[in-house]
Amino acid sequence: MAATRFADVVSVDDFINAQTSKNTEKCTLRDVKLFEEYLLSRKVVFIDISDIDPKELNTYLAEFFISARRADGTDYEPSTLRAQLSSIDRYLRQKHYEHSLILDKAFQTARNALSAKQKSLKKAGKGNRPNAARGLQQEEITALYNKDVLSLNTPRTLINTLWWNNTLYFGMRSGQEHRDMRWGDVTLHTDPSTQKQYVEYNERQTKTRSGIDPNNIRKVSPKAYSTSGDPHDARDPCSAFKKYQMMRPKSMNVDGAPFYLSIRTATQITSADWYKSQPLGMNTLSTIMKSMSREAALSEESKKLTNHSARKTTVRRQKSAKFENTDIQQLTGHKNVQSIEHYDELSPARQKSMFNALHISAGNSKASVTTVSPSNTSLVSSQMATSAHTCTSGQYHQFNASQSSTSKTVFPGNFSFTSSTVNFNFSTLSPTQKCKRPRVIYSDDSD
């Protein structure tokens, strides 16, 4: 029988809903439920929030944003309240509500209340994202390898290594992209010019490229190149890929099979078959970085190491290597190049270097200067020339005195010396007289 040209359609709504982001849908329902809980506490009678009159809904929303707190009584972060507004607006649009909470004047009061609440929270110290995910330092990455958390030796550590490579080298996001990944998305190739192998990633649907715009595609297919050729080298992305391919069930080495597979129990594992013919659990995959950081006992701040930390590490290492933001964008797949700037973050080592540049220790407080006299004015001139400041009348000029001598300085005139800085007060100098343009005063005879 010839294959039919058109597929059967059971439900249009079900098909549309199936393409909705599960995380977005989950957040929407959670925030709408919270708002409904608030309405019930106010004894508001309603069947669905989309049935509430816009004027009344505006008032309820304003009061909700001012009063809403977490279950433990603590305040939400300012960004959480803004996300709640978006969730409720999204839900109402799905219900074909006649107004937009974000755009229409009918809900200006609700938006003003939200802005005021956000400012209030910021004054209280909120909004600094204290638990935001951070990137990994080089010593932490080294520890993951040295402690055998990233290795090719066990089914678990091999999964860890594949996940790390996919995120680091392909710039993949931490959630849905890994769960949707299929075996055929990563392919092994050989560079004909160098005969070196590399693995290449072919992107599926992502957060910023959903498929609605056919022109919005990733311009570059990210590649990870073999670094050693040693089949036992966990740091070589090609060696890790080939080992994983070898230890998967042969039936799962087809394009449409899940990339991440569940691990067999200890009694089921054989020397040539480490994994089951079923996908790795969602919870295991979504917490893989936390599990690795705990196993390696990375630091007391390991709670800030999440799956997103690997993607942050990708961007930070590329920026540290002085690559252009437009180049990094093509690797990570960000929609806007401005998003790359959000990943800027001072490392602890860099912060310490900046502190050392500012700090004057007790051991460096002894400075030497030289007496200013007509015979050594060239010394002062040369030191002042090295300063970035420009002296004008009424200003102070500073320069660091040499620390190689122990002599004191006696400055004639209005000068002062503090610690290792010399201050020159030029306010006593007469300003240069400027010539004034002569004015001619004409008499007015109109009276």
Describe this structure in words.
The protein is mostly helical and 447 residues long. It is 38% helix and 8% strand. It has 15 helices and 8 strands. Strands 1-2-3 form a 3-stranded antiparallel beta sheet, covered by helices on one side. Strands 6-8-7 form a 3-stranded antiparallel beta sheet, with no helix packed on it. Strands 4-5 form a two-stranded antiparallel sheet. Helix 3 packs parallel to helix 5, helix 4 runs antiparallel to helix 5 and helix 7 packs across helix 9.
Looking at this protein, list some descriptive labels.
447 residues, mainly alpha, 3-stranded antiparallel beta sheet, globular, disordered C terminus
H-E string: HHHHHHHHEEEHEEHHHHHHEEE
Main pleated sheet:
3 strands, antiparallel
Lateral strand order in the biggest sheet? 1-2-3
Approximate helicity band: 25-40%
Stretches where pLDDT is under 50 for at least 5 consecutive residues are: 207-211, 366-413, 415-420, 442-447
